[in-house]
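TICKET: design request
STATUS: open
ATTACHED STRUCTURE:
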C-alpha cells in the first residue's frame, strides 16, 4: 500500500503545483470524467444538507474556463497545503487524502483577498492504469480540535 500512498501524495502535489502555476489545464488533467465537487456555504457548515454544488459534474471545457477565469482575475498570494492523512482501500483501487489548505487569492481589480482555509477530503480512483480525483469536498474548519496543519 506504500506505493499507492506515494501515488496519492504525488496527485496532491501535482494539484498544488497546478494551483501554484495558475495552470487550469494541469489542474483539470487530474480529474476523473465523473468528478464532483460539493462546497459548504461556510467553513463551519459541517452538515452536507446545507452544501451547494456550484460547478456540477465535471465538464472539462467548462471547468477549465472557470479556473482560467479565476487565474486571470486573481493573483495567488499564498498556497500552503499539507497532507494530514492518506487512506487506501483494502483492494488498493481507491483512496482519499485529507489536505489542510490555506490559500489566499487577491482580486486584481479590487485588491480584496479571497481566502480558502480549512480541511478537504479528496477522493481518488484507479482508472485505466492511472489515478484520478473523483471527488473533492469544499473546505471545512474543524476548530481547535483539528486546526488546518494539525493533522
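STATUS: resolved
RESOLUTION: sequence designed for all positions
ATTACHED SEQUENCE:
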Amino acid at each position: 500500500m506504500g506505493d499507492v500512498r506515494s501515488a496519492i501524495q504525488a496527485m496532491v502535489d501535482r494539484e498544488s503545483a497546478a494551483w501554484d502555476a495558475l495552470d487550469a489545464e494541469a489542474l483539470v488533467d487530474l480529474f476523473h470524467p465523473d468528478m464532483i465537487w460539493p462546497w459548504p456555504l461556510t467553513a463551519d457548515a459541517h452538515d452536507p444538507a446545507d452544501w451547494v454544488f456550484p460547478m456540477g459534474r465535471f465538464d472539462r471545457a467548462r471547468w477549465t474556463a472557470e479556473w482560467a477565469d479565476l487565474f486571470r482575475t486573481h493573483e495567488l498570494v499564498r498556497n500552503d497545503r499539507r497532507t494530514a492523512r492518506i487512506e487506501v482501500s483494502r483492494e488498493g483501487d481507491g483512496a482519499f487524502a485529507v489536505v489542510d489548505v490555506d490559500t489566499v487569492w487577491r482580486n486584481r481589480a479590487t485588491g480584496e483577498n479571497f481566502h480558502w482555509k480549512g480541511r478537504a477530503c479528496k477522493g481518488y480512483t484507479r482508472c485505466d492504469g492511472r489515478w484520478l480525483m473523483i471527488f473533492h469536498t469544499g473546505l471545512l474548519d474543524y476548530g481547535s480540535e483539528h486546526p488546518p496543519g494539525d493533522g
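CLOSING REMARK: Residues 75 and 125 are 31 Å apart (CA to CA). The chain is about 25% helix and 40% strand.
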